[in-house]
Amino acid sequence: MIENENIASVNLPDSDLVKKLQRTKTPVSINFELTARCNNNCRHCYINLPENNTDAESLELDINEIEDLADQAVNNGVLWCLLTGGEPLLRDDFSEIYLMLRRKGLLVSVFTNACLINETHVKLFKKYKPRELEVTVYGITEKTYEKVSGIKGSYKLFKNGLDRLLTNDIPVSLKAMAIHSNIHEIENIADFCSKHSKKKFKFDPFLHKRYDGDEKRNKKILSERLNKDEIVKIEQNNFARKNALIKSCDQLIFYQDIDASGRVFTCGVLKNGFEISYDGKLRLCPALLHPDYVYSLRIFSLMDAYRKIAENIIKARSYNEDFLNKCNKCKIINLCYFCPANSFLETGKLDTPIDTFCKNAHARQKAILEWKKSSSLS
Ligand code: SF4
Ligand code: SF4
Predict the structure, then answer these.
(1) What DSSP line would sit under 101-135, residue for residue?
(2) Is the pLDDT of residue 378 over 80?
(3) Which of 300, 317, 329, 338 is 20 to 30 A from 265, comparing alpha carbons?
């Protein structure tokens, strides 16, 4: 699954080329959520369905549909591609899909839990290196990993899969979700990831609610969410994260007045990329599930669906006074998990301020300003 950071899609390079392409306001990346099914059953997961869910499997895009969408994307300037899920390696045709996308010249990244990595994947990734291979580490002890993953024996599979990649010199980026079930181990997870990863360790404390609205699962997700003090504490304890927050303080906290004039979308959603669900629906942000912003690619072409969603995004206006007086003018929105997509998942509306998010953002603001002050004094 895509971990949030925030609602991260494929990590695009911070280059002039990408900035230039993004100014054209046409997506330069495409994410294929190859399946919603997963071999794990993580407590915090917003998407997973059981691996043997044949209904979900029967709705998945087949390789020909994926190829057709990839062609449309490439013809419209897309360069980067991310394969995610659920667990993308559950697909029997994963290798064929991966190779097909590589042959089109796309730079392909893969997000996986590593449990299903076998010799075929190793050979594939050795010969045709992915741009990124990102693995999420749910715990570095069997007890913690399996408390999160919900599957007995999954820790061993994860370790074996990761070892296969590392012993074959296939570079991986390791990352974590920080949740109640693994928070006691987060510093050890960070050390483990830093030791084995090609990239700086990153963790994400924000958990989406379920895409399918499953209330029982949502309760579990809420029980795993860190509170404001816990979020501040882990950010403070992680040297790189704390420094990055201090350094980017002036971009995270606005000092001038903000007036978004009632626009619902003030984020970079039109620059995010194409997100294609396992059952062939286009979204411009992975979590944006409001029906006005989801179009079936089994009915519309990629660019027709894109234009319809983009038009709806540009014209969306709020008449909710609470939102207009709070989030629409908020100087710390960049520190907040509020966004129209999350608002919809939390409340069923795109423009409802969320009390717990607000408290978290204010606690983070206070902490970052204090850290900045003491770092400039030292
Ligand atoms: S590994 Fe866990 S978080 Fe990732 S898709 Fe599977 S159940 Fe969800
Ligand atoms: S919920 Fe609060 S902190 Fe977040 S954007 Fe709205 S007003 Fe700002």
Answers:
(1) HHHTT-EEEEEE-STT--HHHHHHHHHS--SEEEE
(2) no
(3) 300
Query: pTM of the prediction?
Result: 0.91
Closest C-alpha to ligand 2, atom 1: 358
Same domain, 41 and 111: yes
Does ligand 2 come within 6 angstroms of the Cβ of 326?
Answer: yes
Neighbours of 44 (CB within 10 A): 24
| Chain mean position to CA 22 | 19
Is residue 65 within 8 A of residue 115, CB to CB? The reply is: no
Do 87 and 77 lie in a common domain? yes
CATH number for position 43: 3.20.20.70
Same domain? 220 vs 246? no
Of 62-71, 262-271, 305-314, 352-361, the least confident: 262-271
Interval between CA 123 and ligand 1 midpoint (Å): 24
Whole-number Å distance between alpha carbons of 195 and 244: 20
Which pairing describes strands 107-112 and 132-136: parallel, antiparallel, or unpaired? parallel
- CA of 320 relative to ligand 1 center, distance in Å: 35
Closest Cα to atom 3 of ligand 1: 45
| Mean pLDDT (whole number) for 148-171 | 97
The answer to whether residues 361 and 278 belong to one domain is: no
pLDDT at 219: 98
Average of per-residue pLDDT values in the chain? 93
State the distance from the centre of ligand 2 to the C-alpha of 263, rounded, in angstroms.
Answer: 15
45 lines ligand 1 (CB under 6 A): yes
214 in the same domain as 341: no
Of ligand 2's atoms, which has the minimum distance to the CA of residue 330? 8
Same domain, yes or no: 164 and 306? yes
Query: Is the domain of 165 the same as that of 16?
Result: yes
**H or E element: which one contains 215?**
helix 215-224
- Tens of pLDDT along 319-339? 999 999 999 999 999 999 999
Cα(307) to centroid(ligand 2), Å: 29
* Structural domain span for residue 93: 1-226+267-316
Nearest CA, atom 2, ligand 2: 358
Q: What pLDDT shows up at residue 327?
A: 95
Q: Could you identify the atom of ligand 2 that is nearest to the CA of residue 326? A: 7
Q: Count of domains in the chain?
A: 2
Q: What is the mean pLDDT of residues 92-120?
A: 98
